[in-house]
Amino acid sequence: MTSHPDRSSWAQGARRSAARDRILAIAGDVFAQHGADASMSEIAAAVGCSRATLYRHFDSRTALQLAYVEQIAFTIGAAVTNRTAHLTAPDDRLTEAILFALTEVRADPALSAWFSPAGAGLASELALSSSAIETLANRFVGDYGAAGVTAARWIVRVIVSLLVVPAGPDERETIERFVTPAVLASFA
């Protein structure tokens, strides 16, 4: 029996995708335990593979970290969208989107380790360089072209800042009073 080239390519792609997903899931556990600076050796050991195998899937530690952050960002983005879909007022939707995103990141042990003082620099760099995170933040404000992209970048910076240095019990008020009006005014 001969194998069909499309089938073997598909199967190989599916196995590669499943391996990447498994690596990212286990990397999350390692990040929760060792922080954002976990080494490729630590991750490879936890996955049960060699560093060479890990590097076949991710050409650098930064690539693995960015893939992890983007995977989680899509999950959180979907949760934010579902959580705020019923809100019709733009100010309510934006405020709740930011607050819920903060809550979700803080609830994830791996991500909360990233936004500790020790990991904040790397986490900030990855979050601010991710086009996927920017795209998700753009959903918070809607389709406003270049102004929306600029606002989305600012929202990501605000979220990162609040993750690193929480505003405490006044966080909602801070967002409602300073962040939401500034973002929405930029579209007027």
UniProtKB/TrEMBL annotation:
<feature type="domain" description="HTH tetR-type">
    <location>
        <begin position="17"/>
        <end position="76"/>
    </location>
</feature>
<dbReference type="InterPro" id="IPR009057">
    <property type="entry name" value="Homeodomain-like_sf"/>
</dbReference>
<protein>
    <submittedName>
        <fullName>TetR/AcrR family transcriptional regulator</fullName>
    </submittedName>
</protein>
<keyword id="KW-0238">DNA-binding</keyword>
<dbReference type="Pfam" id="PF00440">
    <property type="entry name" value="TetR_N"/>
</dbReference>
<dbReference type="InterPro" id="IPR001647">
    <property type="entry name" value="HTH_TetR"/>
</dbReference>
<dbReference type="InterPro" id="IPR050109">
    <property type="entry name" value="HTH-type_TetR-like_transc_reg"/>
</dbReference>
<feature type="DNA-binding region" description="H-T-H motif">
    <location>
        <begin position="39"/>
        <end position="58"/>
    </location>
</feature>
